[in-house]
Design a protein that fits this description.
Helix content: 40-55%
Number of strands: 12
Largest sheet: 6 strands, mixed
Strand order of the largest sheet: 10-9-4-3-11-12
Number of helices: 14
Radius of gyration: 24 Å
Order of helices and strands: EEHEHHHHHEHHEHEEHEHEEHHEHE
Distance between the termini: 62 Å
Length: 342
Amino acid sequence: MPVIISGAKLRNFPIIYLFISEKCSFIIFFCYLCSVFKNIIIKKDMKAFVFPGQGAQFVGMGKDLYDNNEKAKELFEKANEILGYRITDIMFEGTDDDLKQTKVTQPAVFLHSVISAICLGDAFDPKMTAGHSLGEFSALTAAGALSFEDGLKLVYARAMAMQKACEAQPSTMAAIIGLPDEKVEEICAAINREGNVCVCANYNNPGQLVISGDIDAINEACEQLKAAGAKRALPLKVGGAFHSPLMQPAKDELQAAIEKTEIKAPKCPVYQNVDGKPHTDPAEIKQNLIAQLTSSVRWTQCVQNMIQDGADDFTECGPGKALRGMISKINKEVSAHGIEEE
């Protein structure tokens, strides 16, 4: 007659039931942890590096690197040659208005972010990485999917294409705080159906979205969202409706440049904005980059998926502190800090 032995329950491991003969010794077998119980494994020390987007810039950014690190100085000067003008002069000593121009801001933030990562040397050893909007190009370059030269050229092409799209079609964006994502989506969809463009552009963290579209549509959405209970609904001082269908001309122009650029497999997964998922396949990365300009930045989903996949330490690599603030609001249990705290 067989008997049933109930195995001891160890932490989260399931109870193992063994049918054995009366004459056999009582033995408890453990399951193969990695293959069978992947979701139970506690992952530790998974470092992620994240890269900011437009809006993180400030006058003087990168000057310490330039003055105190020969490698950084070499790369900044190389960037000046590639761009055909001394962007370092604007970054280090320009005015806020000079730096706020999309065609300047994007390559400036890219340079500060990527050069900061390169100058970390062996300390830059991410298990995964991601970037917010423009920052995705920085993440891909730092992870080796794009060369420094190609990354900078694409970012500059992106900036110029977006600048043209903004000038051709007056449009704007607004920050919405204090409403569930679903409610913001519902109101935007209703306005969008009326022949206007009004979409959710950036999912920054729960309760904080940025919407994008026609000026009148965004103003109307702000009024309706405040009436629905939003704590704040503020139009942003930006030149256009980024990450909306109004960026289609910029997308078409950038697509040609991306398709001509070699993209390699990165040294770690890059969580991309369009779906919040990890990617290492160059063809997938290329298609997601092309889609990015007219798609939502799913930053909340990126961070949530990175944490689910084991990230517990996030380093923001680049100017500002915006991303670490967003990450802390997405999950208070993980560490989020800047390079200076490495």
